[in-house]
Amino acid sequence: MKTIGSIAVILLILTAAFQAAEKKSPAQEASAIPNPQIDYPGFLKDADKVGALREKRRITEKQFIEMMQDPDTLILDARSAEKYARLHIRGAKNLSLPDMTEADLAKVIPTKNTRVLIYCNNNFDKAPVAFPAKGGRLSLNIFTFNTLYGYGYTNVYELGPFIDITKSILPFTGTKQ
């Protein structure tokens, strides 16, 4: 009788284990919903490559200023048009991240080999209306760098430091200087 009880318990455990293995997590269920316009695994693959490249392409304020003097270099501001209008680095072109498509990027950036300098909200302190801080891992620079790379723009450099805007040597312009 003990043997039959033990076997029954083992069978119940095995049945529960198999049922649990067959049950899909919400993430697995979501990934089973086809959408050829969304490629999260591709994004993760690119993000690994971009992470290594990005670390080599983070530059100082002084390097940013030196690079922006080159007429073949483009400064890209991916913040909203409203934030850009308030305050931006002089000479920067604005294309809000949500509006970045292959066609719109091609209108703003002359070639995929053009050197592009980027900066974001999280680069500047003491200007919260024009440059509201985001969570560190949600920084606009991260998404902008990934997006540009994904569209084939690999000559991208990112302003690296956190700068007190009242002490910055960068040239700013806008409605709320």
TrEMBL record:
Q: List the keywords (alphabetical).
A: Signal
The residues covered by the Rhodanese domain are 69-130
Keyword Signal included in the entry's annotation? yes
* PROSITE patterns, A to Z: RHODANESE_3 (PS50206)
**Do you know which Pfam families this protein is assigned to?**
Rhodanese (PF00581)
According to the UniProt entry, where is the signal peptide? 1-20
Q: Where are the transmembrane segments?
A: none
Q: SUPFAM superfamilies from the entry?
A: Rhodanese/Cell cycle control phosphatase
Protein's name in the database: Rhodanese-like domain-containing protein
The record lists the lineage as:
Bacteria, Pseudomonadati, Verrucomicrobiota, Verrucomicrobiia, Verrucomicrobiales
